[in-house]
Each structure stands twice: as structure tokens, then as C-alpha cells.
Prior knowledge:
Layout: E1 8-11, E2 18-19, H1 21-34, H2 42-49, H3 52-61, H4 70-83, E3 90-91, H5 95-104, E4 108-112, H6 117-126, E5 135-137, H7 150-159, E6 166-169
Parallel strand pairs: 1-4, 1-6, 4-5
Antiparallel strand pairs: 2-3
Helix pairs in contact: 1-2, 1-4, 3-4
Amino acid sequence: MNVRHPAAVFFDLDGTLVDTAPDFFRVINQLLVSEGREPMRLEDVRVGVSGGSKTLIGTAFGLPEDDPTFEPLRQRLLDLYLAGVADESLLFPGFDHLLRRLDAAGIRWGVVTNKPRRFSSPLLEHLGLAPRLAALVCADDLPRTKPHPDPLFLAARTAQVEPSGSWYVGDHLRDILNPRLQK
């Protein structure tokens, strides 16, 4: 059997490559307690991490995005998160081994995330991954984010590989949606 190896593998960040739930758990509960609310369970935070800060605020406070208190709460959450972006976050089990195997095989790898660079870069630096990345594409690098393919095309260009020779690994529905099929 002839298995085709990818020229590059790109990973989603939160919930796929890195378990950031412990840091989000800490900061969302800081915010909830400061607002006189009950803390969330880690399992509930873990489910929302891939959806980003909007999902976490919506879940924690039961607010729609158009509520006037939504955005100030989200900004407070992001400020708390930035202060400890990598205090407890770790690679998911097995990924260190996988990344070393990709390195050894000469397969480029990187991260394509809807997380802004101001959070992604320090996290990846702290984990020692930044120097090994062939590409890092963040939400603020392009006008369109995932599920649009532009971030993956930029990652392939940055890694100097053909997009058709690249694989993408994610954990959220937006990681596989085809924007052309959406209304």
C-alpha cells in the first residue's frame, strides 16, 4: 500500500493542538466570581474553548452578542486571559511525539487559528513551538477567517508548499465547513 505523505500539516490551536481550557477555566471563573456569579465547571469550559471568547461569554453569562454588557465582559475576559495566556496550557497528549515525527520526516507543520496573534504568539512561544513552525496564521492576518480557505492558502504559501499537498487538523465544525455551501 502506497501512502501519500503530506508536504505540510496545519493544526487548529485551541482544543486541537493545545489544551487551553485550564487557562480559560481560570479566567472565566475569575470574571464570573467578580460579577457575583457561580463558577463554571471545567468540562463546560472545555466544550466552549474551540468557539472562542464569544462562545465562553455567551455560555457563562447566558447573553446574546447584541446585549450591551456582552462586549465589555468579553474584553475583560480577554484582558485576564492575556495576563496568563500560557500559565496552564499544554500540548494535548501525543502531540509532542507527533510533531517530533513530522520534524524528523521533514514534513512542515504550522498553526491556522481564528485566535488573534496577540494571544497565539505568546502561547506558542511559551510552549517552545514558535521556532519550529513553518507557518502561523491568525485571525487578524486576513480579512476572512476559517471556515474560509484563505487562512489555509496563506499557511501553505508561508510554508512554501502546495495547498493540495497539505492536511488540516481541527476540532470544530468551522474547521471543515465549506463557505461556498453556506448561505
